[in-house]
User: Fold this.
Amino acid sequence: MSGVCRSMSFLTIKTLKDATVLSPCVWFVSARSKFSKARIPQELFTERSKEHEKYGGDPEQPHKLHIVTRVRSAIRRPYWEKDIVKYFGLQKAHTPVIHKNTPSVNNQLKIIKHLVRIQPLKTPHGLPAEEDMADTYINSKGELIVRRLLQPVDKKAIES
Assistant:
C-alpha cells in the first residue's frame, strides 16, 4: 500500500487529469448485478388492497376469526408441516376448525397454506350470547348462524 502511495505522489496533477478513465469490465458489471439485484418481480410488492375486494374483506375492519379446513393430505410433507397440522387440530380432512386472526396464527398458517383453505368467519347477526352458543352452526358460506329458539311466554303476560 505504501508503494502505491509513493508512486501516486510522484505523479503531477496534469498527468492525473489527462489520464483516460477505463470503463469497468463488462463481465464484472453483469455478474455483480446478477447477484446483487433482486430477481423478484415488482408486481409482487404492490399494495394488496385489491385482494380484499376479490375475497370480500375490508382492510379497515379485518375479520376476527378464521375457518381453517384441511383440503390436502400431510403425507409426504416435512415434519414441521405435520406438526403444525396437528397443532391446529386439522388431522381429519374437510373438518372446519375456528382460530383467531392473530399474527402468530397467520404466520403458522402461511407455512401450510398449500394444505388448507382459510375463510373468514362472518357473523351476519352479530356474535351470539353465551346461552345461544349451543344453538349455532356454520353454513357453507362461512357464516355463523344462530338459531334463536322461542322463549316461553310468562303466564302473567297472557292473563293481562
